[in-house]
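To whoever is on call:

I kicked off a structure prediction for a single chain this morning and the downstream step that reads the tokens threw a length-mismatch warning. I double-checked the sequence; it's 320 residues and nothing unusual in it as far as I can see. Pasting both halves so you can look.
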Amino acid sequence: AKTYTAGLHASATPSDTLGVYRFTGTGLTGDALTPHNEGNAVPNVQFASASLVKGGGSLLETRATNGDNNLNVMKWSNAASFNLAEYLSFAVATSSADRTLRLDRIELDMRRFHVTASPKNFRFALFRNGTLLASTEQNGLTATTSFHVAFDFEDVFAGAGDTLELRIYGCLGDSSTTSSQVFLDDIAFYGRVLPYAIGSYTEWTLNHHLLDVAAGRLADTDGDGVSNLLEFALGMNPELNDARKVPFVQYEGGQLVIYYRKPAGLVGVTYTPQSSTDLVSWSPVSGVDTGTTDTDGTPVWKASVPAASGKAFLRLKVSE
């Protein structure tokens, strides 16, 4: 995440509502955590993952009381510091392999507290696939505090197989053993579902500001003799003449070897080294391996054929 801000406020109009975790007052007894998702009219969004991670066990239970229709967390932690093995988890992901989820904002309500000890401290953290992206804390909240919290993000994305997860930690801020009740509700995720996959050709053209004709697979916007599709597949820059990064062939110990760049994380592209003896008929080359890395860290792969007699030619075919 490039930018992460948080505050007890309501700010600018958010983007699309991806979904809202809203509790209906049913199915919340004991350790059960089954929220009702409302407001999710956005296709290609998976928005049904909520859980209670008990860790050391001091987070006693979640329940709904008196028909309040919110999540009541009983005595979150009677400790002076956070137990990071113990939290509430709310997750969102894309359900389509050819879509990317951009998360712009998370909002939630913490409606009121019934406590006899203070202060009350909370940590809110955003994870992607279990890796922390950003976190913030709200500390010293009193027994009568109710607030709306909002988190704004920039450049937080989830592709196929990725999960974005909000974790909420809490503690009383002292060693008191008195009971605490915290009410949570309306945990809303805002963002956009982008019409391309992370690592796709479409994302690459947008990142390089290639539009219309300039975004075509066969276009050569920088005039270096390499088409856009090849530039994408080889990890080249379509705005810079960097033709030195194209595949090259050399003779090594009785083998004719082709070396080519193959960036990690690209999707929808296939690399096929091919050989020929007459430049007319071409066949796939077996025995491909990872070789080495280029000076910029891009993996370099290689394929080879025997060059004992006659003519031999090698080329790389790139296709979608």
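Update from on-call: the warning came from a stale cache, not from the record. Cleared it. Sanity check on the structure: The radius of gyration is 27 Å.
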